[in-house]
Each structure stands twice: as C-alpha cells, then as structure tokens.
Design a protein that fits this description.
The chain is of the alpha/beta class and 195 residues long. Helices cover 33% and strands 16% of the residues.
Length: 195
C-alpha cells in the first residue's frame, strides 16, 4: 500500500449529499476481479447518459477540475452497500483523499485499508471549501496526515481527527497483509517449530 503522508492537489467539489456506493461505482461494473480499471466507471451514471454520451455539466468533466486528486463532498459520503470497489474506483480515477463532514463507516474503513484517506471536517468548513473550490480556478489543498491538518495557501487551515492506529498504518503504507508481514520472522520461527 502506498504511504499517505502529505498530499497537495487540485480539488474537485461534488456538492451532493448521501452519495452512495452504487453512485460511486454502479453495480454493472463490479465484474472485474482485480482492484484496477474501475476509475473509468466512477460516477458513471452521472458522467454519461444512457447512450454513453458525456454529460457535459458534470463537475468532473469541467476542464478546471481535470487532474483533481482531492474530492470534496457533501455529508454521508459512501453510504449504501459495503462494496470496496467504490474506494478502488476513486483511487483508480486519481483521487488520494475525500473530504466530507461525514462518511459511512464501512466506506471509511474500506478507504483506510486501501491507502485512501477520508478526512472529516465540520459542515461549516466543508461549505467554505466548496465556496473556494467553486470560485477559485485551480484551487488546491494540502492534506497533511502528519499534522492532521487541511490547509490552502489562502489562509484556510483546519484540523481533523483520525484514529492513531489507522494513522500509523496510512503513514507507513501498511495494509492488513503489510501488518502481518512485519512479523514474518516470528511466523517463520513458529512454523519451523511446529512442522
């Protein structure tokens, strides 16, 4: 898993609440067995019409948000089903973090297990960031997991809270397998003793 320490990137504002995982990655695209290749289907039913034609006014099609790596979203992001594919799609599209005032628990857990950071800020802070992302061309934020802080170069600064163990894993790029492999020598010694 790629470590997450400090990331600065362009912000895309998705000013919608209750974005569920079926909207993030629709069910018809869940047939892949690997974690890659889902980005092209991210928010598919909002990005394309029934015939596959691009819906021009969807936020991710705007030239000013191309290459965005930080998604700004309304409250209750990632609700609905428990599909891990939602995180895979966001990451494969190029996002490293999503900032919202609240997340569905399973989505938040799936995110951190995949090196993707869900940042929870207050609704007032989200409203201010939405205003800036909508009004400032090439608006960028820095998400600093080392300091647990979100900031821009225009005076915005906000602290966020994250579980210490989850933070440790993200900073060090440790998923469940990586955590286990830290004890590889002890596991090998145990197996050697218990053949």
């Amino acid at each position: 898993m790629k470590p997450f320490t400090v990331h600065t990137g362009r912000v895309a504002p998705l000013d919608r609440v209750n974005v569920d995982t079926d909207q993030i990655i629709p069910k018809q695209f869940l047939k892949r067995i690997e974690k890659t290749g889902f980005g092209q289907f991210l928010f598919y039913d909002w990005r394309f019409d029934g015939g596959g034609t691009k819906i021009a006014d969807f936020v991710l099609h705007a030239p000013r948000y191309q290459g965005a790596t930080i998604l700004l979203a309304g409250k209750n992001f990632g609700c609905g089903s428990s599909r891990e594919h939602a995180v895979w799609a966001l990451a494969d599209f190029g996002f490293r973090a999503v900032i919202s005032s609240s997340f569905a628990d399973i989505f938040a857990n799936n995110s951190t297990k995949n090196g993707f950071l869900p940042v929870r800020l207050s609704e007032n802070e989200i409203a201010e960031l939405m205003r800036r992302a909508d009004g400032i061309d090439d608006y960028r934020l820095t998400v600093d997991l080392e300091k647990c802080e979100v900031r821009d170069d225009r005076g915005f600064r906000a602290q966020f809270v994250i579980d210490d163990f989850v933070r440790h894993c993200l900073l060090n790029g440790l998923d469940d397998i990586g955590l286990t492999l830290q004890h590889e020598a002890e596991i090998a010694a145990y197996e050697a003793r218990h053949r």
